[in-house]
Amino acid sequence: MAEALGNPKYGYYGTRNPIGAAGDFITAPEISQMFGELIGLWCADTWRKLGAPNPVRLAEIGPGRGTLMRDALRAVRTLPAFRGSADIHLVETSPVLRACQREMLPDVDATWHDRFLRVPEGPVIAVANELFDALPIHQFERTLRGWRERLVDADGDGGGLRFVLGPVTAAFSVVPEGLRHAPLGSIVEVSPARVDLMRDITERAIHGPGAALVIDYGHLGTRPRDTLQAVAAHHGHEVLESPGGADLCAHVDFAVLRRTASECGADVWGPVPQGEFLESLGIRTRAARIKETATPEQCDEIDSALERLTGPGEMGTLFKVLAITSPGTPVPGGFDANDR
Ligand SMILES: C[S@@+](CC[C@H](N)C(=O)[O-])C[C@H]1O[C@@H](n2cnc3c(N)ncnc32)[C@H](O)[C@@H]1O
């Protein structure tokens, strides 16, 4: 999964911009400017709650086309104290997407990094939208001969790929005890890469001071499941058919991210459904304001974007939002005291 997505020469992200109607999938910031704007205001509000540190690193991990950051920075133009304190850092592995980001943010003095830990130390507010689902997972299957790892093998004849079962690797050690008794045939997923990134973000945030917002397709509650999927041209695709040619992703287990951040000592908020989060940040008020100067056609587009971002059965419930803050920070926007 890591090679298929990240190989610099043949990997999916290294060789294309897959986001948008002409690409393979669409993400929340591409659906409406309101998404990035509200995240930008969340960052400004959180910065104030952190004691208004100056400077603060405003870091986005996996920024895609750069749309979220563009809209976020436009929204905070009216908050010069925050904007003046914020250094912009973009953590991106794909050279093609870095070029899109440069184009999208022509007047922004941003610094690019290939890993989050290269963002300079100090106060930080980090945002990651649809990043964790692209980080590689391991899958284990419970068979009559015990747990086996699902591995990818060359199929021998046609040069294709196939799944095979092999002895478990060290990654099995992170499978929670409760899942090891799952019924025969169960598939369990774990992702040490996600745990490592969550730990890096949290350690930076708690010492910063700082905060982070993680938004992704996922669930709360670790149970057996097989969520690995491939997507091309906005449709499901055979997982092993086009390595490097189709997107690969797997649902994020927010219970694991929560536990990781909490064990590191952060205050952890949520996850809450994306719809609830955006409603609580005032997306309806923002939509009404934009509609005041929109044509009837544009108003329809705004309503449909609102429904996609917040509606039940759409991104509003499928996507979840988790925040972490330095210990003692007041409740961040979009959450309430019971979400901790
Ligand atoms: C699904 S896209 C999401 C893009 C964007 N956040 C959005 O919402 O439109 C995933 C992004 O993460 C980047 N990415 C993938 N693996 C990464 C990694 N290990 N570190 C940093 N960025 C990564 C991709 O190149 C891409 O920009």
Present the secondary structure layout:
Elements: H1 2-6, H2 12-15, H3 28-31, H4 33-49, E1 56-61, H5 67-75, H6 80-85, E2 86-91, H7 95-104, E3 110-113, E4 124-129, E5 138-143, E6 146-154, E7 161-166, E8 187-190, H8 192-207, E9 210-219, E10 229-232, E11 235-237, E12 247-249, E13 252-253, H9 254-264, E14 267-273, H10 274-280, H11 283-291, H12 296-310, H13 315-318, E15 319-325
Parallel strand pairs: 1-2, 1-4, 2-3, 4-9, 9-13
Antiparallel strand pairs: 5-6, 5-8, 6-7, 9-15, 10-11, 10-12, 14-15
Bound molecules: S-adenosylmethionine.
Can you characterise this structure?
The protein has 340 residues and is an alpha/beta fold. The chain has a single domain (2-136, 195-229, 251-339), classed as Vaccinia Virus protein VP39 (Rossmann fold, 3-Layer(aba) Sandwich), CATH 3.40.50. The protein has 13 helices and 15 strands. It has helices at residues 2-6, 12-15, 28-31, 33-49, 67-75, 80-85, 95-104, 192-207, 254-264, 274-280, 283-291, 296-310, 315-318, and strands at 56-61, 86-91, 110-113, 124-129, 138-143, 146-154, 161-166, 187-190, 210-219, 229-232, 235-237, 247-249, 252-253, 267-273, 319-325. Strands 1, 2, 3, 4, 9, 13, 14 and 15 form an 8-stranded mixed beta sheet that branches. A 4-stranded antiparallel beta sheet has the order 7-6-5-8, with no helix packed on it. A 3-stranded antiparallel beta sheet has the order 11-10-12, with no helix packed on it. A hairpin with a 6-residue loop joins strand 6 (146-154) and strand 7 (161-166). Helix 4 crosses helix 5, helix 8 packs parallel to helix 9 and helix 11 packs antiparallel against helix 12 (296-310). The longest helix has 17 residues, at 33-49. The protein is globular and about 60 Å long. The model has no long low-confidence stretch (mean pLDDT 95). The chain binds S-adenosylmethionine. S-adenosylmethionine binds next to helix 3.
